[in-house]
Amino acid sequence: MDSRPIGVFDSGIGGLTVLKALRERLPDETFLYLGDTARVPYGTKGVATIRRFALQAARYLESRGVKRLVVACNTASSHAIDLLRRECSVPVEGVVEPGVQAALEATRGHVGVIGTPATIASDRYGELLRQVRDDLRIENQHCPLFVPLAEEGWTDDAIALSVAERYLAGLRRLGVDTLILGCTHYPLLKGVISQVMGDEVVLVDSALVLAEAVARDLDEDDAHSPGPGQVKLIVSDMPQRFGEISRRFLDMDVGEVEVVDLELQAGSTPAGKENP
Amino acid sequence: MDSRPIGVFDSGIGGLTVLKALRERLPDETFLYLGDTARVPYGTKGVATIRRFALQAARYLESRGVKRLVVACNTASSHAIDLLRRECSVPVEGVVEPGVQAALEATRGHVGVIGTPATIASDRYGELLRQVRDDLRIENQHCPLFVPLAEEGWTDDAIALSVAERYLAGLRRLGVDTLILGCTHYPLLKGVISQVMGDEVVLVDSALVLAEAVARDLDEDDAHSPGPGQVKLIVSDMPQRFGEISRRFLDMDVGEVEVVDLELQAGSTPAGKENP
User: Fold this and answer.
1) Fold type of domain A6-94+208-273
2) Tell me, which fold does domain B97-205 have in CATH?
3) How far is Cα A232 from Cα A258, in angstroms, rounded to an integer?
4) Of A232, A263, A252, which Cα lies nearest the Cα of A66?
5) What digits encode the pLDDT tens for the residues B197-246?
6) Which tens digits make up the pLDDT trace of B239-255?
7) What ipTM was assigned to the predicted interfaces of this complex?
8) Which residues of chain B lie closer than 8 angstroms to A45, CB-CB?
9) Given B37, B49, B236, which is nearest A38 (Cβ)?
10) What is the pTM of this model?
11) Do A6-94+208-273 and A97-205 agree at the fold level?
12) Domain layout of chain A by residue ranges
């Protein structure tokens, strides 16, 4: 048994979809969720910046004594997972590999990937999909307005539908049979995405597969917590607003939301200053 | 005469609308424009964070030897201008006061203010307007999706119009006669904003009034540059994309875009660490 918490990190609120799946699969675990709300979004930023921010977040969660690190952000997973695995002393799980696995199980040969500009530019999904099946047809599409729409709460109305139509009509015409929701915000827009793509297209949300992978990993190492499970939220900005959203979304009492200055933390540990 | 540059700073690309007006009014000046693209947007963030970021940007521009500092960002102007005036050794001009002045000249008594959630929450425009005319009717409306729409370049289409309609219909119904565009991104959406509000409503873009104020200030101190005027761009992320947008928007050769890590800079000057 191992009662230490599992660290989960995202640029903002999107990773709450992952935290919810983890809680449901692993109710006895304690989760430390870190949202970098002072610097959200990551998906429109450059590779070196994304890596620097991700490394700061990982080091902070390590300093809080986590036993596992879950990168609940596709942008950080796409660009920084190898770096984090190299730099962290605990096992690191991202959202990209589980998404790839789920897509491979679902597809009949034609996969679409949607994500932030940074995730799409990395072509990380395509790379991992082709490693297993080089006969797949793969289409990529970035959707930068989906994150602000989800953050504004406009997820199921005429504007959301028009934006989804503009981004996704090309993928529908090309006939993809499976669509990877390559950003943890996107499950919040599942309704309009499905309306545009049609019911026969499988939408892949990696949260469930990821939770399975983490559970299996804890099994193997006999590292489950004896319980009772808890959730502790930490953000770099706007704790009150984050607390309200989280309470509603997780449907639980999340207590006080802590605030941390990740830049200041990085300043106090010289290694965190590296710009890889 | 004073050949030192004028520092201009914004969270991202929005301040280019201000830089353009400054260039046109003061063609002999050299401008150092700093866009904090690693942490954009500011307008959805908390007050302490906005102040910390603004102070880091100001200190950086001071370290580059500017003679004036222009805060070309409504969010930072609304929350941090007093702090910057206290902390900086050079005169500081923001975009809020010129916008207030222009609105007072234009209005017949009913003013609308649109801006980011942080700017609207500050009620800085309302406060300054009421100081001069306490009989004014003032309406506030935040428009969080306008910034990502402008950054995506969707400024003049059906989606932009639907978003503008949703945010602004209430202000139109209330009958405001003057609308302050309280975010430097919003002039990019002038077309759809005007379409929703109607031609008779005056749209206030503070860039021109601000450029006038800076020119007057240089007159008074006999601090104009002998020329030739130049523009030097500095960002905290994505220099290439920023260079392309700037070249197109300013219609000039902007040369190489520099990159600076504002967090690292702040770390090396202990005073920059203060969280006011």
Assistant:
1) Rossmann fold (3.40.50)
2) Rossmann fold (3.40.50)
3) 8
4) A232
5) 999 999 999 999 999 999 999 999 999 999 999 999 999 999 998 998 89
6) 998 998 898 888 888 89
7) 0.86
8) 37-38, 237-238
9) B49
10) 0.90
11) yes
12) 6-94+208-273, 97-205
